[in-house]
Design a protein that fits this description.
The complex is a heterodimer of chains A (244) and B (181).
Chain A: H1 2-27, H2 31-41, H3 50-79, E1 91-98, E2 106-109, E3 122-125, E4 128-136, E5 141-145, E6 152-157, E7 163-168, E8 173-178, E9 190-193, E10 205-213, E11 221-226, E12 235-239
Chain B: H1 2-6, H2 9-30, H3 47-56, H4 61-78, H5 86-98, H6 101-104, H7 109-134, H8 139-180
Helix pairs in contact in B: 2-8, 3-4, 3-5, 3-7, 3-8, 4-5, 5-7, 7-8
Classes of the chains: A alpha+beta (244), B mainly alpha (181).
Chain lengths: 244, 181
């Protein structure tokens, strides 16, 4: 027994230590790894370039007009005694990493709980909805993109209010399955999140209808092209849940 | 390298483990990054799979399985535990450990690249089979995804395999030869 232990003891102890360390990393969702990754990539997280600044200022101008219109809209809603909603400032976060596996559509952001990001926060980008925060460490957070196959959301055709639910299909496509047998939908229609969606607030831009298949069973389907160019994004904006 | 042989056995062991663990951490750090030239259709090399193959090539099936288990658990933490990566990586470790390299294959870059190519396909297939059993995705979608992912991941992983394999293999050979003498 003693000789056996002398021969294999070190290997067994080292193996045990390795496995428990791996288990610990799994249970903490790799928090330590993502923190380290954030630390290492910090010098490479570039600020916006000149061209981006120009576009940004244009966006800012449009956004100010939008705020103006929204506040007008809010006033009108108040006059009609609609339920009042508050608006909150979002957190701008850089994308520092992509998915650690090919089957999942994740991105890693360089901001975490320190900047007020929580699990369930909504992630937006130029072009519309990007996804939802699924895990947070102190300085980083992980986003499940709406293009992921496990990501589902209620969606509505903005023009005709035909409702359905949407699931991701990798890269920048999603499938919208309608609740109606004969939905009013055309190529090029804008798609946004619907009021019945529980994970996302209503009315966020999602994409455009690329093709329609009304004969599909059990429900008619439309392929949606997502408007946010996720593969080229470098920055996103994170909003607290239900506060958009 | 003569310095290493002057170390006491304990220091050498510790150094060996530090290098091994360090290489794993390096692989983990590259995993979420998409550096230029490392991407095909949005898919990057499967660094953990390359590491498991490099580790298991000159070890037993049991050691390969253990490495696959440990790295699989870590990757589960970094993505999602359903379906688990443990199965695919452990299987890769076992298969690589069992290949009779001395008899069939020469010890060079090409054969390592070929093994990684095959193992990447095996690993992605195991994942696809798990998805089919879980049943939250469409079967036809899973297998179209599988083709795309398995092929790009296999090509990229096999091309980048020597980067991980060559230095690690050299280091382990050195340590082994010192210990034997």
């Amino acid at each position: 027994m003693r000789r056996w232990w002398d021969r294999h003891g070190v290997a067994i102890v080292l193996g045990g230590v390795t496995l428990s360390a791996a288990w610990l990393l799994r249970q903490t969702q790799g928090a330590a790894l993502f923190e380290t990754y954030q630390l290492i990539t910090r010098p490479f997280q570039l600020g916006p370039t000149k061209e981006e600044r120009l576009t940004d200022s244009r966006v800012l101008e449009l956004r100010q007009r939008l705020v103006e219109l929204e506040s007008q809209n809010q006033k009108l809603k108040d006059l009609l005694s609609y339920a009042k909603t508050t608006k909150q400032q979002g957190t701008v976060a850089p994308i520092i990493g992509r998915s650690a596996d090919h089957w999942w559509q994740h991105v890693t952001l360089g901001r975490g709980s320190k900047d007020g990001i929580k699990v369930g926060s909504i992630v937006m980008a130029p072009g519309g909805l990007v996804g939802r925060i699924v895990s947070v460490t102190r300085n980083s957070s992980r986003v499940l993109l709406i293009s992921d196959a496990t990501s589902r959301a209620g969606a509505v055709i903005s023009r005709s209010r035909s409702m359905g639910f949407m699931r991701g299909q990798g890269s920048n496509r999603a499938v919208l399955q309608f609740f109606d047998k004969v939905p009013d939908v055309r190529r090029g229609d804008a798609v946004s999140t619907s009021p019945v969606s529980q994970l996302f607030p209503a009315g966020l831009a999602v994409g455009r209808v690329e093709s329609v298949n009304l004969d599909k069973s059990p429900a008619p389907e439309a392929i949606i092209e997502l408007t946010a160019p996720v593969s080229y994004l470098e920055w996103v904006i994170v909003y607290p849940e239900n506060n958009l | 390298m003569t310095n290493v042989s002057l170390f006491s056995p304990w220091a050498r062991q510790t150094l060996n483990w530090a290098v091994t663990v360090g290489s794993v951490i390096l692989c983990l750090m590259v995993l979420p990054a998409r550096l230029p030239g490392m991407e095909l259709l949005g898919i990057a090399p499967n660094w953990l799979l390359i590491w498991v193959v490099a580790w298991s090539l000159k070890r037993t099936a049991l050691q390969g399985a253990l490495a696959g288990l440990a790295l699989g658990l870590i990757q589960d933490g970094m993505t999602s535990p359903h379906p688990t990566h443990v199965l695919s990586l452990a299987l890769v470790g076992i298969l690589t450990g069992r290949i009779q390299k001395q008899r069939y294959i020469q010890e060079d870059f090409i054969s390592v690249a070929l093994i990684v190519f095959g193992m990447a396909v095996v690993g992605e297939t195991v994942t696809a089979i798990q998805y089919s059993f879980i049943g939250d995705r469409n079967l036809s979608e899973i297998w179209t995804d599988h083709q795309r992912i398995a092929l790009s991941s296999a090509i990229l992983s096999s091309l980048w395999a020597p980067v991980v394999y060559y230095p690690l293999n050299r280091w382990w050979e050195q340590i082994n030869s010192i210990e034997q003498s």
